[in-house]
Specification:
The protein is an alpha/beta fold. Helices cover 63% and strands 11% of the residues. The termini are far apart.
């Protein structure tokens, strides 16, 4: 299992590195297009006439915790479960209504165990993404989030997942999925000639950027899962070897003691005959 986890880890790392270049470039293009859109168009969007709309106050959040579908990966899933329950309490203490949409069988099981209502449509999403490497399921998730946002059922979307920092460190992270085309203040403006208009391209490309953000989060979580499983299996292997050494030493001591007792019995019998 350690070798399998290692192979999957290298595969997802390669996928993530290649995909991040695409996502970063797409983000720059979207930001540059937004900079060319006049203020009247942006004001019209903010009034709710497109999926780039937003609300002045947040009263409900769609929380999307991401776990694995299987175990044997250390505290990977239990940490996500604890962080999810804590985040639910934090949001509810702020007066927000929390909608749950888990990704991963383990977190879905924990939420069911805690008697939490949730949308189970995307529980198996991890397996599909790892096998197919397509945006189909990601697009369905983003479309659902945008529809809930447009219908004013949610104001914010949060992903709770493990961020891959290194082989021995996966950090629980909360990322908000911005359903509005907010500009990054550090993004340099690219001079682009566009056809059709920048507004039309922005409306077309922004959903793709949302898809890319969600896909990147899931790849990050998958990489963390494989790293955690690889580390857990390495630890199990080391513990098994240590146990084997202890049992071998105990066996040798017991065997030596048995031989010594037999020699003592033989010597005692010889002395008795004399």
């Amino acid at each position: 299992m350690r070798m399998v986890a290692s192979a999957k880890l290298h595969h997802t790392q390669s996928m993530t590195e290649a995909f991040l270049r695409y996502k970063d470039e797409l983000g720059k293009i979207v930001d540059s297009l937004q900079l060319t859109v006049d203020s009247s168009m942006r004001q019209e969007d903010q009034q709710g006439e497109s999926q780039l709309s937003t609300f002045n106050s947040q009263t409900s959040t769609l929380l999307i915790p991401v776990s694995s579908n299987s175990g044997l990966c250390g505290a990977f899933n239990s940490n996500i479960a604890k962080a999810t329950m804590k985040r639910i309490q934090e949001l509810e203490s702020q007066g927000q209504e929390v909608h749950l949409l888990p990704i991963g069988k383990k977190i879905a099981h924990d939420l069911k165990k805690a008697n939490k209502d949730f949308n189970a449509d995307f529980v198996d999403m991890h397996e599909k993404i790892e096998k197919s490497s397509t945006f189909t399921d990601v697009s369905s998730l983003v479309n659902l989030a945008c529809a809930l946002h447009q219908n004013k059922k949610i104001d914010n979307v949060e992903f709770l997942y493990h961020h891959f920092k290194s082989m021995g460190s996966q950090i629980i992270t909360i990322d908000s999925l911005s359903l509005t085309s907010n500009l990054s203040p550090l993004t340099s403006h690219l001079s682009l000639l566009t056809e059709p208009s920048p507004q039309e391209l922005l409306t077309s490309l922004f959903p793709r950027l949302l898809n890319a953000q969600v896909y990147g989060i899931l790849l990050d979580s998958l990489t963390s899962e494989h790293a955690a499983r690889m580390l857990a299996m390495q630890t199990a292997d080391d513990n098994a070897n240590d146990l084997l050494k202890e049992l071998t030493l105990l066996y040798n001591k017991t065997r030596q003691q048995s031989i010594t007792n037999e020699l003592i019995d033989i010597m005692s019998g010889q002395i008795g005959k004399q």
